[in-house]
Amino acid sequence: MFxxxxxxxxANVKTELSTYPFINMYHCSLCSYVxxxxxxxxxxxxxxxxxxxxxxxxxxxxxxxxxxxxKHLLVxxxxxxxxxxxxxxxxTESGKLKRHLMxxSxxxxxxxxxxxxxxxxxxxxxRHLLVxxxxxxxxxxxxxxxxIESGKLKRHVFxxxxxxxxxxxxxxxxxxxxxxxxxxxxxxSxxxxxxCSLCSYSxxxxxxxxxxxxxxSxxxxxLCFM
Length: 226
What we know:
One of its GO terms (biological process) is positive regulation of transcription by RNA polymerase II. By secondary structure, the protein is α+β, with helices and mostly antiparallel strands.
């Protein structure tokens, strides 16, 4: 049993908790959130009030925790304090470094109980599970389009607005995805990062390299059934 009389200062909570000597938890009166420390309850209540007291002095970013603000400031300084000891990778968050290290170890701790799928992040596993349920929670308000990722929905909405936020600084090219812009920039740099291990062929896209490799294997995966 929890008392629901909680305030942002935690004073009422402490008073009420003394009535229940066997309960040592702080309970939000606006939702089911429960925590062990009053400071955590204070931070949580900001999600209800919408208040974001920690503000960036360089841009409009604001948040509810000082730790998040400190991480954000790294965007402005360019500092990447978390470095991989096995390659040149560096990042701004310890969690990202942990996930990166799995690319070296091959570990995939998040496993699907319905198939052999495994991955390095719980979020990716949750998205994968939608493949089995058939659920598409992200729906377009302008047409019948629905998908399993918020990012895909954002890109889809650009087809309605005509917006192309990713712009090339060397020419008039613009597109709806950062990945497409990166590929386009290779046409300016002349770089061809995808190289064939069997000959001197190189290209700017992994799909092209896959097609090229078929010329070595002799495989013809596309069959005509007419």
